[in-house]
Amino acid sequence: MNTIIKNYNFDGVWHFTDRANLDSIEKNKGLLSLGELERRGIEIPLPGGNEWSHDADRNKNLHEYVHLAFVDDHPMLFRAKEDNRIKDLNPWHSNC
């Protein structure tokens, strides 16, 4: 990932979540994939994805990965805010 960030001149990676999810992230010691959340029986107060996106992730086994973005204005963030799935944005950014 560091190679991609360097080659394309990204400033890091982003994970977008609602502030309502921060206690759960802290309690469970970090960001977890949808698959891991399901195995542990953890419910997220305000998931960023909708049922369609979760089903699509499961169908392609992408539910085993935490979704990150290389840009802070990702189109999926726009849609999640528009659909009111993210009400109080807390963007997490890492310079890796």
List the keywords.
alpha+beta, two-stranded antiparallel ribbon
Short description:
The chain has 96 residues and is of the alpha+beta class. It has one domain. It has helices at 2-7, 22-27, 34-40, 51-59, 75-82, and strands at 13-18, 89-94.
SSE blueprint and pairings:
Elements (H helix, E strand, L loop, with lengths): L1 H6 L5 E6 L3 H6 L6 H7 L10 H9 L15 H8 L6 E6 L2
Antiparallel strand pairs: 1-2
Q: What does this protein look like?
A:
- The protein has helices at 2-7, 22-27, 34-40, 51-59, 75-82, and strands at 13-18, 89-94.
- With 96 residues, the chain is an alpha+beta fold.
- It has one domain (2-94).
- Strands 1-2 form a two-stranded antiparallel sheet.
- The longest helix is centred in the middle third of the chain and has 9 residues, at 51-59.
- It is globular and about 40 Å long.
Q: Detail the poorly predicted runs.
A: none
> How large is the count of helical segments?
5
Order of helices and strands: HEHHHHE
- What is the typical, i.e. mean, pLDDT? 88
Number of DSSP-assigned strands? 2
Count the domains: 1
Report the end-to-end length measured between terminal Cα atoms.
Answer: 9 Å
Query: Any idea what the shape is?
Result: globular
Question: In percent, how much strand structure appears in the residues?
Answer: 5-15%
Structural category: alpha+beta
Helix content, binned percent: 25-40%
Radius of gyration from the CA trace? 14 Å
- Biggest sheet descriptor: 2 strands, antiparallel
Strand order within the widest beta sheet: 1-2
Oligomer: single chain
